[in-house]
Write a structure and sequence with these properties.
Number of strands: 7
CATH class: Alpha Beta
Radius of gyration: 16 Å
Distance between the termini: 39 Å
CATH topology: Aminopeptidase
Order of helices and strands: EHHEEEHEHEE
Structural class: alpha+beta
CATH architecture: 3-Layer(aba) Sandwich
Helix content: 25-40%
Strand content: 25-35%
Strand order of the largest sheet: 1-2-3-4-5-7-6
């Protein structure tokens, strides 16, 4: 597994994943209807990177450069030394340990390169696979936020997980 920047050439693969209702079941975002929707997402990812408010990578197999998933910090709160992790993996690649490997790499980057104190994950309580993958990777369940998210005409709950950087160093003032 390797992480790399998402580029325009990934638009078809990104569209296939973001338009798949079964893959997007627990991701509370509208399904991509066209490749233009996927291209708009790539532009949004680029904009967040330029603004310093987020960073998202393509997940690819070590043997090629084909996008098989995405992972990153959807929201970085620089002032709080905190970020929210989010991820998506093609159905054909699930259950192989690739997401754990990607999570570990992104957590390490967050703690060592951008000096985060904590990383949170917000998960639909019905998403057993995502609940399990965060626990396996050292995230602690902090609680349940009831009806904290409004999507497609209804309020949804979120389970909050966090992982803390035990060696976090505050900048000197």
């Amino acid at each position: 597994m390797k992480l790399r920047r998402i580029v325009d050439e990934d638009v078809e693969r990104l569209f296939l994943m973001r338009s798949d209702p079964s893959l997007m079941t627990f991701i509370k975002r509208p399904l991509a209807k066209t490749t233009d929707d996927a291209l708009a997402l790539i532009r949004k990812i680029d904009g967040a990177l330029e603004a310093g408010s987020g960073i998202t990578w393509a997940i690819a197999l070590a043997t090629d450069d084909v996008l098989i998933g995405t992972i990153g910090f959807w929201r970085i709160e620089v002032e709080n030394f905190r970020a929210e992790i989010g991820y998506l993996l093609d159905k054909t690649q699930q259950g192989k340990g690739l997401m754990s490997e990607a999570i570990q790499a992104v957590v390490k980057y967050g703690f060592e390169e951008i000096n985060l104190h904590s990383i949170e994950g917000r998960v639909d309580p019905k998403n057993a696979a995502s609940l399990r993958i965060l626990e396996i990777n050292g995230f602690e369940r902090e609680g349940l936020l009831k009806e904290n998210y409004f999507f497609e005409g209804k309020f949804e709950d979120s389970v909050i997980f966090s992982r803390f950087n035990t060696s976090h160093k505050l900048p000197q003032v």
